[in-house]
Amino acid sequence: MNTYEEALDWILSRLQFGMKPGLDRMKWMMEKLGSPEKDLKVIHVGGTNGKGSTVTYIRSILNEAGYSVGTFTSPAIESFNERISLNGIPISNSEMMDLVNIIKPLVEELAETELGPLTEFEVITTMAIYYFSKVNPVDYTVFEVGLGGRLDSTNILEPILTVITNIGLDHVNILGDTVEKIAFEKAGIIKKNIPLITAVEQYGALTVIEEKAEKMNSIMYVLGRDFQVGENHSIETGESFCFSVKDRTLKDLEIGMIGYHQTKNASLAVMVSVLLDIDEAFVRRGLLNAMWPGRMEIVQKNPLILVDGAHNPEGVEALVKAINKRYSTKKKKVLFAALRDKELTKMFVELRKLEADFYFTQFQSPRIESAAKLAELSKVENGTAYADWKPILTDLIKGLNNNEMLIICGSLYFLAEIKPFLKNIIS
User: What is the pTM of this model?
Assistant: First the structure.
């Protein structure tokens, strides 16, 4: 590969192989590369919602404490390279190209074996592990699980801490149609003798996770039982809350992300900092400075435009609660697009709790649900469908008044497609 564009095209060409759960291909790659996964000090973050935000809180706190931190996240929102970032900064195009040139011959060799070809996500996971181990070694890495956990390619890692944010009904066609079945897959990242921090609430799901933690001799810290979040209130710049564990209390912690659910995600990061013995001053600054694109992100203040990757029922519920609490006096307009394999009917039950004008659209994806079908499924009387999102988004922004707000939500892949367009039209 002689250019970044060639390297990126090669990575994306791996999408043709879809999702292939299992760790045998990753084990083969790690052995060929000299077991780079063994060099990393990993915090492994799984769960249904809030993984990316939690990764960001952890990274920001560790950065404030003076540590270098590599992160692996997905999907990309603003640039593909952000999936592999060092101290919050995406790796360079040249580094991405060099990584492809290192692993591509091995990927081609693997394809000729009975294990078959590596998927796009497996390729990126391998690149991240190799980069943080061999190319640019770091003090800590924080890896976000891609899908599920038990058979996810990141589960090749041996972490120092494991985090499971929550359990919700997402990817039910792959992970199962109950919270217990999904919890079983998520609990697959729990490792022997490695502490687990979680915000899982449902009794059935928590029971599954507790059983796995006990089997693995993993000390478990549960939000609401072993550590607490309280005194939450919204402030102009985000949220404020209190964190407590045993005889330790941190009052008036502030985050710059919107929504009560974000205080739960932040509390997981604070619990990580407690176990790593990070000073309180670093925790406070890290939380305040942490930002994650596409999560109730305000892209324009006046008139107000907010984007959020609410792509499952739990995500939509959190979005609606935050909007109704914080912006109750504003007239609302919603532009929504989603994938057809999501729990759309349940998502619309939550979305209809917003008093708003709804605009349904679609974007480039083989899994997309059409705008017309979304409008039909939504069961809202004031909903309209637009197959092309650019004209309607342009009109909505141009016609937005100061007493109104535009909420752009749904699939994270939708946000990734519109973000560059938004930057141009708003600026």
Answer: 0.92
